[in-house]
Amino acid sequence: MSQEARINRIIDGYNRPNRVVEFPKKNGTPLYTSEFFGENVFSLKTMAKCLPKPVYQQFIKQMRGGQVMDKNTTDSVAHAARIWAMDRGATHFTHWFQPQTGSTAEKQDSFLTINNNFDSNGEIYQLDTFSGSQLLQSEPDASSFPSGGMRSTFEARGYTVWDTTSPMFIQPGPHGTSILYIPSIFISYNGEALDEKTVLLRSSEALSKAAVELLKLINPNPTDENPHVTHVYTTLGVEQEFFLIDRGLYSLRSDLKITGRTLVGRLPPKHQQMEDHYFGRMPTRVLSAISEAELELIKLGVPVKTRHNEVAPSQFEMAPIFEDATIAVDHNLLTMDVLHKVAHNHKLKVLYHEKPFKGINGSGKHCNWSLSTNHGENLLDPTSTPETNYRFLLFLVAILNAVHIHAGLLRAGIASASNDHRLGANEAPPGIVSAFLGEHLTEILNAIEETRAIKSSEPHFESIKVGGTVLDMKISTLPEILRDLTDRNRTSPFAFTGNKFEFRAVGSKQSTSFPVTLLNSAVASSIQEVTEALLKQKGDKPTLTDEDKIFVIRKYIIKTKNIRFEGDNYSEAWVKEAETRGLPNIKKSPEAFTKLLDPVNSDMLIKNGIFTKSELHSRHHILLEKYTKDILIEARTLEAIVKTQILPIAYEFRKSLAEGIKSIESVCSKEHSVPERNIIEITTPIVIDLQKYIDSITTMIKEVGKIDDPYKQAEYTEKNLLPIMEEIRIKVDNLEELISDKLWPLPKYNELLFY
């Protein structure tokens, strides 16, 4: 029956009707994507068309923090947004926010309002309205979301508040309607942050303030060519990795449905060892789904740029063009949501778990992070002469100093029960946080440190040469090829890649809000420290000299040298070297979470106004609690699978072997039943061990409930439950190799994965 169910699901997948999606056209000709980009977004451009000019100008001032939002402006924006949305089929609106659950939340309200006044016919007025107060805030039940002890169950009041920096948008609803989404923050009755976005916005402001102060010090006399900077914002481009599998087969795997990963399952003979999946041709079914998702995202103003096969079978990636980090976070969450919905329509299931399949690569969310001014200048662009670009070097050493001081904090930002399966597994950076700069920048920093000339001064871009000749040497079909300033180090958790840093260790299913918040905060604090060092070095002089700048740059080059590593972060040699450098190697999440409360980190976060003390402690509590719950859910799921599916099949298999032996020996000598006896002798100890391990898991789950301290709970599950779950997996995978395919109760890897 198990084999029949699997076969039926596979046949259903092949027999599915092709989903037809019409690409936007005009007069029968497909539109350029730029022509419908953002058509479902109530953007500033759209707002300017819908609002009177004075109201629009007032809104822009208020959005940029110039003054508090007044009632007239909010009512006008709300009215314009409602008309715009209802003209596009919207019947409801929702405040869309990011509670500390790793995903988004929404409560949908209708535009329909009943007025108690009567018309001339004696009917109650029914009208569609949307007021400024409804736009500004809503009131979800705060007691039903994680609060880390800040709120009791009876303290239910909380508020979602419109984030004016992120545009409203519409998404499809049921029956051809649509819904107006209002990006929002989520706070408690007393104003504490209960979400991911509030602290992200705070960190962005703190970083901007610190960066502007440093830029004022460097450039005290602005000119037209070098104007004064009033705002610095972080830019972010999020590379989203994921798996896509058949939804029918997915439905037969309770471990995938409940936990997001396979808790048992053997590797097939062919998986990723041929290295032929990366950048290979996408399966037609997958390409159709991703293409439709891109179409919807373009309408939502998400600048999706890249799609490709990843390293593992059934693994893929989508990546956007970088944009303001606060909007990029929203767009990444939208990407995950849209991809989930579209995959469902194609009878596929998207898996965001960092390690859904043991033995093949897991998924990450590479965050390409940089700093940009309000004039559009990238502060991490080294230019063609980075050795004399003191602005670039000051920001570079400030970032390195942030990583050096707050490496544990950055590690805490990427920690989770699911990401622990991926980190340090030769597919993602290890628990040691280091920074990679590349040969050229490393030589520049070393030369400044040693007060010597640079050994080799290569231009930012140079022609690649083959055998001493330029590739475009009179070969008309080949262009000249340009080489970047730095190579890429995919093993580094924090690598400089030309004009940005790539934070590679972020997990694929987590929101980027939290890790980017911590990174922004650490860099803001470090920039403040560098600014103070420059002021001290300047002394009574009216302005900084180049010598002052070089002195401070050299100081931080020396201070941060231990955090820089140019080699293979996967190697055992690096683990040993990192230990001699005094760098922490945090392998598991419970230890990583404690770094939030280390004074060097907590004092910085509280001082810069990113978290209050209670918010930080609640965050620590929530992370520990979630870690424990994740593992307990996995343990209970594994327990149920083994008890109700694996062991019964093993009993049936042994019984059939025993009956076969009896039949053989009734007509032949015992020598003829040796193969069957050998299989029983191999299978029986495995079954006995499984029974023993399952009894142990049941006992351990009860023990966790007796522990009150959240850290001790997490530590117990990590040190006791995880190892025995791995032992159970090994035993079950051994049975999978032995038991007849027609009996095996779960879809196997070779059936789940697209090749």
Describe the structure.
- The chain is α+β, with helices and mostly antiparallel strands and 755 residues long.
- The chain folds into three domains: 37-194, Ubiquitin-like (UB roll); 204-458 and 483-611, Glutamine synthetase/guanido kinase, catalytic domain (Creatine Kinase, Chain A, domain 2); 626-753, Four Helix Bundle (Hemerythrin (Met), subunit A), CATH 1.20.120.1560.
- The protein is built from 23 helices and 24 strands.
- The strands form six sheets. Strands 12, 13, 14, 15, 16, 17, 18, 23 and 24 form a nine-stranded mixed β-sheet that branches. Strands 3, 4, 5, 8, 9, 10 and 11 form a seven-stranded mixed β-sheet that branches. Strands 1-2 form a two-stranded antiparallel ribbon.
- Helix 4 (53-63) packs across helix 5 (71-86).
- The longest helix has 55 residues, at 613-667.
- The radius of gyration is 29 Å and the shape is globular.
